[in-house]
């Protein structure tokens, strides 16, 4: 058994190095046929003329091909902008589609083999590494050595991992043409599921799902014997695999709109966008069901489920963002700051994003029914800024890339508009709370250390007060790591949950809500 972890780590690192090196392998050749396949019929004659120097040339590197394409394509659009001919500017981003279509050589000819040698082998390596993981033990803050690990305590390994994740997300969102070889690897799986070649989002979804499944096994191993953690982990694994990955692709196979039935507005901020609504309305009964289902979830499902079960029903049992945070992000949960300043920033930021999403959606719906005579292109500009700032930079680059720096729930804590919506319900109209037994608390601090949402759970436990916070996602780790069984997740009567008392913290005077034990 002692050799399994080193073998697994070696296999994972070798697969990761090979996976990264694929960006520098393969060849690319642009022909008339390739160009005609990758762009619209309207733009083909224009691009054929503008890209003439590239046609027939063989490129040995993804970077040089994509760079040349962007240079010629950008020069054409820049020339039109300077001349004021904005109506002739090509706004479509063809860089990725053309680069992928032009791929030839080693990578394009060995997709399945390379998929097995990189993503699949890497997943196997992680499994071999995590299987010998001992059952979670409690008793001291440094019991698991988290503060002595370079990966888990912002050491050089953590910095390298975080930097790699950030670079991955930057390329994925804004420079996908440079990771074409990675997307090619996902073609065999995509074709098997939907009959279509893989997009960058399918490749990302494949890796994302595998990360949750593989690291979910780690959670099973770490918390074996803990029924709540086992069921919760199984739940996020199931919802990610079935609802976020397989079902949407099967819908596409039957020429229906891609839809993740568990993705709820305002987290699914494009739900009320014109193209989404039109796709659903034009898809018959299944499309109408998608539209009605999404609306009912927002106005009935979320409030009702949150009233009975609090935030945990979605954030810790269903959500894909939460699923990744609770599995792949689990080693970094202790890095979330517990300071009062962070709590104040959190409240303003997460509710600010919610307001942004609500205003944007209201503008979108109003403009849609006014047939775009009310606000014109203003909604499009707002959509672009929200997509760039919130959906890409915040949820992706920062939300996952900052795991090794700020913990595993940066997005959920500071930016998720759905978490803000559910949190409001949980805080003021819910039966969920974490009960405490102050007489048994030994102030070890495990609960606060491992709270991914930055809640100082020990403060409540020492006073025997129930934890009733809008930010709590009900992951239950605080109860799992408590050596004395002080904490317990419960759904009880609303009466007697909280009452306001003033708390002095340094020079600040704030009001919090104290729990009154029934």
From TrEMBL:
Superkingdom: Bacteria
Gene Ontology annotations for the cellular component aspect, listed alphabetically: plasma membrane
Cited InterPro entries: 4Fe4S_Fe-S-bd (IPR017896), 4Fe4S_Fe_S_CS (IPR017900), Electron_Trans/Redox (IPR051684)
4Fe-4S ferredoxin-type domain: residues covered: 432-460, 463-492
Keyword entries, A-Z: 4Fe-4S, Electron transport, Iron, Iron-sulfur, Membrane, Metal-binding, Transmembrane, Transmembrane helix, Transport
Alphabetical list of SUPFAM superfamilies matching this protein: 4Fe-4S ferredoxins
Presence of the UniProt keyword Lyase in the record: no
Presence of keyword rRNA processing: no
Transmembrane residue ranges: 112-132, 153-176, 201-221, 233-254, 285-309, 348-370, 385-405
GO MF: 4 iron, 4 sulfur cluster binding; metal ion binding
Protein name: 4Fe-4S binding protein
Species whose genome carries this gene: Pontibacter diazotrophicus
């Amino acid at each position: 058994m002692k050799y399994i972890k080193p073998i697994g780590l070696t296999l994972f690192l070798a697969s990761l190095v090979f996976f990264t090196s694929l960006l520098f392998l393969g060849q690319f050749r642009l022909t008339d046929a390739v160009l005609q396949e990758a762009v619209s019929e309207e733009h083909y004659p224009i691009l054929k003329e503008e890209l003439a120097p590239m046609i027939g040339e063989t490129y040995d590197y993804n970077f040089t091909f994509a760079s040349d394409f962007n240079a010629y394509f950008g020069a054409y659009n820049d020339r039109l902008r300077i001349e004021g001919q904005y109506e002739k500017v090509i706004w479509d981003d063809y860089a990725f589609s053309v680069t992928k279509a032009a791929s030839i050589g080693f990578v394009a000819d060995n997709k399945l083999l390379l998929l097995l040698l990189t993503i699949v082998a890497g997943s196997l390596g992680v499994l071999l590494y995590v299987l010998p993981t001992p059952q979670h033990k409690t008793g001291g803050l440094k019991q698991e050595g988290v503060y002595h690990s370079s990966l888990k305590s912002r050491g050089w390994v953590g910095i390298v991992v975080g930097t790699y994740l950030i670079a991955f997300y930057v390329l994925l969102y804004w420079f996908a043409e440079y990771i074409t070889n990675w997307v090619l690897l996902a073609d065999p799986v995509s074709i098997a599921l939907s009959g279509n070649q893989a997009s960058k989002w399918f490749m990302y979804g494949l890796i994302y799902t595998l990360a949750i499944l593989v690291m979910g096994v780690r959670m099973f191993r770490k918390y074996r014997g803990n029924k709540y953690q086992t069921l919760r982990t199984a739940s996020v694994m199931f919802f990610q695999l079935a609802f976020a990955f397989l079902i949407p692709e099967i819908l596409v196979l039957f020429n229906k709109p891609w839809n993740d039935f568990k993705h709820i507005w305002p987290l699914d901020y494009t739900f009320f966008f014109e193209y989404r609504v039109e796709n659903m309305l034009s898809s018959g009964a299944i499309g109408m069901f998608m539209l009605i289902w999404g609306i009912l979830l927002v106005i009935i499902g979320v409030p009702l489920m949150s009233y009975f079960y609090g935030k945990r029903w979605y954030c810790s049992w269903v959500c894909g963002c939460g699923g990744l945070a609770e599995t792949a992000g689990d080693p970094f949960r202790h890095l979330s700051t517990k300071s009062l300043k962070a709590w104040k920033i959190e409240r303003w930021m997460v509710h600010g994003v919610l307001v942004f999403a609500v205003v944007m959606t209201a503008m979108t719906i109003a403009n849609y029914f006014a047939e775009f005579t009310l606000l014109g292109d203003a909604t499009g500009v707002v959509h672009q800024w929200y997509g760039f700032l919130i959906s890409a930079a915040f949820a992706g680059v920062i939300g996952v890339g900052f795991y090794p720096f700020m913990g595993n729930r940066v997005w959920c804590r500071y930016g998720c508009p759905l978490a803000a919506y559910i949190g409001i319900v949980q805080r003021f109209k819910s039966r969920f709370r974490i009960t405490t037994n102050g007489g048994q608390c030994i102030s070890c601090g495990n609960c606060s250390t491992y709270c991914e949402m930055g809640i100082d759970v020990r403060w409540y436990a020492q006073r025997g007060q129930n934890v009733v916070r809008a930010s709590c996602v009900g992951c239950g780790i605080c109860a799992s790591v408590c050596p004395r069984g002080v904490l317990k997740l419960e759904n009880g009567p609303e009466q007697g949950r909280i009452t306001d008392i003033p708390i002095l913290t340094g020079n600040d005077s704030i009001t919090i809500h104290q729990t009154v034990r029934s």
